[in-house]
């Protein structure tokens, strides 16, 4: 049961719960627990029974799958304030299709599925908030699919840079290791690094540690119309 006042306030502010009356919030809190993970620790494994969804309060989580050849495929990076596994409330899948583990020391709120489903039946506003969340996820997945079906690795990297630039300002801050970004793009880490170096040599980007600045938007965009940059 969740009792910490600060975490209760976090739950109250989250869009999946902010429409609840006090009694409804108390019902959620009665079926919510706190989970602390150290960096590298697993939250659940691919194939574990689905019983809960989560809200990340602090830290950073990754969702990933194992491919048929035993390789880890990054699906999503979860950042503070984001919920995950909530889509499984509706699709009837009894097992988690991905694994979740901590990229950094993390604090999470763990919410039982069944009590929240009962609240959805009583609170239409919660349903709308959840639909909005799922719509955002769907849009992200469509972008990922578009990128993965690009003709070559160069296009995937360039599209990644344009998608991740902050407010269109031409700056990308990599808050996860490059090997994980490469995994999400479906390429090897050395391929990702090699493409970045080519873009640097072409004067299209500048890289300083984990900060990437797009120097030439038009010519970088033109890479998408060529086989390589």
Automatic annotation (TrEMBL):
Superkingdom classification of source: Bacteria
PROSITE patterns in UniProt: CNMP_BINDING_3, HTH_CRP_2
Pfam family, one: cNMP_binding
CDD domains given in the database record: CAP_ED
Gene3D superfamilies (UniProt xref): Jelly Rolls (2.60.120.10), Winged helix-like DNA-binding domain superfamily/Winged helix DNA-binding domain (1.10.10.10)
Keywords assigned by UniProt, alphabetized: DNA-binding, Transcription, Transcription regulation
One Gene Ontology cellular component annotation held by this UniProt entry: cytosol
UniProt entry tagged with the keyword Nucleotide-binding: no
Domain Cyclic nucleotide-binding: 16-120
Keyword Transcription regulation in record: yes
InterPro entries xrefs: cNMP-bd_dom (IPR000595), cNMP-bd_dom_sf (IPR018490), Env_Response_Regulators (IPR050397), HTH_CRP (IPR012318), RmlC-like_jellyroll (IPR014710), WH-like_DNA-bd_sf (IPR036388), WH_DNA-bd_sf (IPR036390)
Domain HTH crp-type positions: 151-218
A GO MF term: DNA-binding transcription factor activity
PANTHER family cross-referenced by the UniProt entry: CRP FAMILY TRANSCRIPTIONAL REGULATORY PROTEIN, DNA-BINDING TRANSCRIPTIONAL DUAL REGULATOR CRP
This protein's name: Crp/Fnr family transcriptional regulator
Species in which this protein is naturally found: Pseudomonas mangrovi
């Amino acid at each position: 049961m969740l009792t910490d006042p600060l975490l209760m306030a976090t739950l109250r502010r989250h869009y999946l719960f902010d429409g609840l009356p006090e009694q409804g919030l108390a019902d959620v809190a009665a079926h919510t627990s706190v989970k602390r993970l150290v960096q590298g620790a697993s939250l659940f494994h691919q194939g574990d029974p689905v019983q809960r969804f989560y809200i990340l309060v602090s830290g950073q989580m990754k969702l990933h799958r194992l491919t048929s050849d035993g390789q880890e495929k990054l699906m999503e990076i979860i950042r503070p304030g984001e919920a995950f596994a909530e889509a499984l409330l509706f699709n009837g899948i009894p097992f988690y299709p991905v694994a979740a583990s901590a990229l950094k020391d993390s604090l999470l709120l763990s919410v039982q599925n069944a009590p929240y489903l009962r609240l959805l039946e009583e609170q239409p506003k919660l349903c709308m908030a959840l639909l909005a969340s799922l719509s955002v996820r769907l849009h992200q997945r469509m972008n990922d699919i578009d990128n993965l079906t690009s003709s070559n690795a160069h296009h995937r990297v360039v599209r990644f840079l344009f998608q991740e630039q902050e407010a269109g300002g031409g700056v990308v801050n990599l808050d996860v290791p490059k090997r994980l970004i490469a995994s999400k793009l479906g390429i090897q880490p050395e391929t990702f690094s090699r493409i970045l170096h080519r873009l640097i040599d072409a004067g299209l980007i500048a890289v300083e540690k984990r900060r990437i600045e797009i120097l030439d938007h038009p010519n970088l965009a033109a890479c998408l119309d060529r086989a390589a940059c």
